Amino acid sequence: MDLLAAIKREERKLAKELGKLQHQLNGVRAAARALGSKASREVTEVKKQAMSAAARAKISKATKARWAKFRAEKSKKGKT
Q: Is the pTM higher than 0.85?
């Protein structure tokens, strides 16, 4: 197999994929323009919700309890 030919085939494949992605990006940009400035403002103003330390601790404790129960049942089944 010719290495140069394989590289050129891969290059053509990637160029084709790039064209598809650029076409999709243009479509998304056109949709954003059609929705107007309100849509862009909504997208930029979305904030990531932060979880409180207490909530993280509560979830962690519950997860550890679930796993402890799972391991206890597993070891109980293994002994009998």
A: no
